[in-house]
Structure formats: C-alpha cells, structure tokens
Design goal:
Elements lengths: L2 H4 L13 E10 L2 E11 L4 E5 L6 H9 L6 E6 L2 E4 L12 E5 L10 H5 L7 H14 L15 H13 L5 E5 L7 H18 L2 E6 L2 H7 L2 E6 L2 E6 L1 H6 L4 H7 L3 E6 L4 E4 L2 E4 L8 E6 L4 E3 L18 E10 L3 E8 L5 E7 L9 E6 L5 E4 L3
Parallel strand pairs: 3-8, 3-9, 6-7, 7-8
Antiparallel strand pairs: 1-2, 1-4, 4-5, 9-10, 11-14, 12-13, 14-20, 15-19, 16-17, 16-19, 17-18
Helix pairs in contact: 5-6
C-alpha cells in the first residue's frame, strides 16, 4: 500500500461567509410595513442591485445596512459577524461600509486630494499614496489640487467614487449614484465605475429605479415591490423569465393579449395558445415585447398562411408610426378584437395610418400569466 493511499485526507475548508448578509429585515413606519421579511446575501466582488419603483423599500434597506436607520426585526452580518439586530448595533463608522449617493456630497472647501483623503487614517505619506493611486485609476490625476466647483458632473462623480473606495471598505452602498449625470455620460461612467469596483473586490449594494442601469452593472438583481423581494437572479434570467406581468413590464414595454382558457387552450387572434395548468374559464394575459411582434412583409395585403412557423398571422391596421432613433415604433389596432399592439422595427419604417398589415408573434418569446384585470 502506498503512502498516498494511507495519507489522511485533509478536511475541506469551511466556506467563507458572505461579505454582507441580511436576514428577515422588517421595518414599519406609522403602522405601515415598509420592509417585509427581506433577506439576501452578497459575496465579495459582486454587485447586487435593489431595483424597483419609488417607495418599494430600496433606500430604507440601504439606510438600515448603513446603520443610519434601525429595523424592527431581522439581522445584518458583515463577513459572518453580527453588526445589527434589534438589540445589538455596531455604530455606522465601525461597519467598514462605504457610502456613495446621487449628490456626490463633496466638500466644496476641500481640494480633490483632500476630499479623497477625508476618511483615511495613518501616516501622511501613505494617505497621499492612496489618493494618488485612486485618482490615477479614475483618470483625474491632473485635478488633484483642483476644487469640486472646477469639475464637471462626471468628474465629481469619479472623485466621490475614489473617496468612497479610499478606506478600502468591505462593502460599498450606492444610492442612485448616476441619476444626477447627463444621460450621454452615464453609460461610460457606469462602465468605468464597475471596472474599478471589480478591481477592488468590493461587495456592492446598488439602489436604482432604472432597469437599464441594473442590467448594465449588476451580477444579481433583487426586484422589489411593496417592501418585498418579488424576484431575484442574474439580469438575463429576470428579463427572460419574469415572475409575473408586472416584472416583465418593469424591464421593457409589453403587449398584453387577453384570453380565456378552454380545454388547456386559450384562443387569441394569433391562434390557440397552450395554457396547461390553468382551469377552464381562467382569464389569461399573454405578454409579448414589441420587438417580438413581427410584421409579415412577405404577406402584406394578402391572406394569412396557416403553415407559418409562429402560428396564425392576425391582421392589424396602423394607427400611428414614430421613428425613435434606432428603430421605429408602429401601433396597430387589431381587427379581431380592437386591442392595440405595438411593434418595433429596425431603422426607419413609417407606414401611413390606416394601412392594413399581417402580424405574427414569437411564441417562444411569450409569457403567460393569470390576468390582472
């Protein structure tokens, strides 16, 4: 028997705890439940986004994690250590959590270097080296002695990011950090910010109400509604497998085709849809995004071809068409039921109102939900 066969197998190392873990967080204001049993965790180096409409509980969650508000129930852990429950509470300044908000909150009387160094401790030379390192990484070395009023909005945002990261926080909380920027600047600055956060290995909790921002930046999205997390997962999964009609509508415009189940089928202007699992008589919403509603240009003005791959074409009449820059948006009044459906077409396509056209839908891109009438 060889030594390799007799040597004991070392025990597996225990898994590292999440950088941030939130358990069963609840918050009540004036008898109204603002957060309802919210739980999630974020490992080091991951960007998690709290996404949802105003008033859904996103910022309240952020404030409780930061330590500037108190929960009514639940616990918060950083690297496995309890930092807050309803009795015990680590002060905000001792949580190793950085904060970055939409107004940047730079000190106007301090230079860029002094702003970035504000939260640093230790010898002056070490602080200066950290400031110079971060300003080089956000491409602002030439502004090290400038003051905030001399910077553009995008430059101020990068200074705020450098300041938030200077103390090497284990967690960075970002509350609508890009909403004050010109729309033309946002995508580039988001990408630069994301690259720097990944380099630092910081766990990030980002709050936004913009689906585009969440999908561009997040590794994981927590979709919130009325104080609850209604769906969580990677951006691709939330977009392509929404939990309900409202979740689908939050990420993009949608068309809704209504119907009623009969024998596991739901009749629509586009033919019968398989809707198993719904009892007869159930009202159904079939949801499809405008880019998946197709105009049958080969059959324009002629009758439907029952052998088409995506089911039965249905005829609609153009109500209006608008060019949106990269695509055209065409609205149709369906002849079968009078409903209005919208289709997007690449480039310029502006048919005149009253033009009849045949439409088809991508059945593999449809979502079926119980009706929200």
């Amino acid at each position: 028997m060889s030594l390799a066969e007799t040597a004991p197998v070392p025990p597996a190392a225990p898994p590292e705890p999440p950088r941030l873990e939130v358990q069963n967080l609840t918050r009540i204001f004036d008898g109204q439940v603002v957060l309802d049993d919210v739980s999630f965790s974020i490992p080091a180096g991951q960007v998690t986004c709290l996404l949802g409409p105003s008033g859904c509980g996103k910022s309240t969650t952020l404030r409780i994690v930061a330590g500037v508000d108190m929960q009514d129930a639940g616990k918060i852990f950083v690297d496995g250590a309890l930092v807050c429950d309803t009795v015990f509470r680590v002060p905000p300044e001792r949580r190793a959590i950085g904060l970055m908000f939409q107004d940047f909150a730079l000190f106007p009387h301090l230079s860029v270097a002094e702003n970035v160094a504000f939260g640093l401790t230790g010898p002056r030379a070490e602080k200066r080296a950290r400031v110079e390192e971060l300003l080089a990484r956000v491409r602002l070395s030439r502004h090290i002695d400038s003051y905030p009023h001399a910077l553009s909005g995008g430059e101020q945002q990068r200074v705020a990011l450098a300041r938030a990261l200077a103390p090497r926080p284990r967690i960075l909380l970002m509350d609508e950090p890009f909403s004050g920027l010109d729309e033309r600047l946002r995508d580039g600055i988001r990408d630069e910010t994301l690259a720097l956060l990944k380099e630092e290995g910081t766990a990030v909790l980002l709050v936004t109400h913009e689906p585009h921002e969440a999908m561009r930046m997040a590794d994981q999205i927590l979709l919130m509604r009325a104080g609850k997390i209604v769906q969580r997962g990677a951006p691709y999964n939330l977009y392509n497998a929404p939990a309900d009609r409202a979740a689908a509508a939050f990420f993009s415009d949608i068309n809704v085709i209504k119907g009623r189940v009969k024998g596991a089928l739901t009749p629509t202007p586009f033919g019968d849809f398989l809707t198993p699992g719904h009892p007869d008589g159930t009202e159904i919403d079939i949801v499809i995004r405008p880019q998946h509603l197709k105009i049958d240009f080969d059959r324009a003005g002629r009758g439907p071809n029952p052998t088409v791959q995506d089911g039965t074409p249905a005829r609609g009449v153009v109500e209006r068409a608008r060019f949106m820059g990269r695509e055209s948006l065409v609205e149709f009044r369906m002849e079968a039921n009078g409903e209005v459906l919208r289709a997007t077409v690449p480039n310029v396509f502006l048919p005149k109102p009253g033009t009849p056209m045949w439409l088809m839908i991508r059945r593999d891109r449809c979502f079926v939900f119980p009706s929200q009438r």
